[in-house]
Amino acid sequence: MKFPKETRTYCPYCKSHQAHKVRLVSKGRARTLAAGNRAHERSLLGHGGKVAGEKTVKKQGKRQVLMLECSTCKKKHQRTVGTRTKKKIELK
Fold first, then answer.
1. pLDDT above 80: residue 18
2. pLDDT value, residue 76
3. Is 67 helix (H, G, I), strand (E, B) or coil?
4. How far, in Å, CA of 13 to CA of 9, rounded?
5. What does the DSSP 8-state code read for residue 29?
């Protein structure tokens, strides 16, 4: 899916339509002591045991999140693209 690098859309801070710069939202650094990370580390201890056959389940695509930066007030807000996509959004 292609998306423009700049778009004119509603700014909730200016309360009017303004030009916005668009970029993809990137993941922040993972917390090493988060409960999920600790559980994952525990599962890696020891030996794996037997593994079942290949799964025939298709992976579901992700909903892409865009970061919009207002050109007038420089505030940022997020927008989720409505459809699920297999590939990352390409900014043109």
1. yes
2. 96
3. strand
4. 12
5. P
> Which distant-in-sequence residues (6+ apart) come within 8 Å of 64 by Cβ?
1, 24, 80, 81, 85, 88, 89
Residue extents of the structural domains in the chain: 1-26+61-83
Residue 92 in tokens: 């043109």
pTM comes to 0.72
Residue with tokens 């390409």: 90
CA gap 13, 69 in Å, rounded = 11
- CATH number, domain 1-26+61-83, options 3.10.450.80, 3.30.870.10, 3.40.50.970, 3.40.630.10: 3.10.450.80
CA distance 82 to 90: 15
